[in-house]
Amino acid sequence: MTNHTTRLDHVVLWVADPVAAAGFYEDAVGLEPLRVTEFTEGKVSFPSVRVNEETILDLAPRSIAERMNMLPGSADSAGHPVNHVCLSLPSAAFDALLARLDAHGVPVTGIGHDSFGARGKATRNFYFRDPDGNVFEARHYA
């Protein structure tokens, strides 16, 4: 695999309730919440959850859409989630995520095999939705 210096820093998800979303990602997905207290105190515009040491998911409330003026039309993306975000996990973490989602009553698709991604074909994968309808894929490679 080529050693690239470009990495994915963050993905911004539109959510109805950022605190509830952070709770979902912490409890059901196992991600570390960031800046939740600061958000509830009004010190920051949104909280985040950590995917790994280099990547986070920002949980942006739809109410800030009108302030998204960095690019014409940015506010119009509120409520239009991306097709899906894929989390690549080691085998044991994949199984643990599947168990956590089941324990929280989160519906998941069947287990797929040989789905192509950044590292080639994944051994197993499945999809689930967060409470705001954002779609996630979980996968692991051999």
UniProtKB/TrEMBL annotation:
One family name in Pfam for this protein: Glyoxalase
Matching InterPro entries: Glyas_Bleomycin-R_OHBP_Dase, Glyas_Fos-R_dOase_dom, GlyoxalaseI/FosfomycinResist, VOC_core
PROSITE patterns found in the cross-reference section: VOC
Domain VOC: 7-141
Keywords: Dioxygenase, Oxidoreductase
Entry keyword annotation includes Oxidoreductase: yes
GO molecular function terms listed in the Swiss-Prot or TrEMBL record: dioxygenase activity
Protein name stated in the entry: Dioxygenase
Naturally occurring in which organism (per UniProt): Streptomyces cellostaticus
Lineage, broadest ranks: Bacteria, Bacillati, Actinomycetota, Actinomycetes, Kitasatosporales
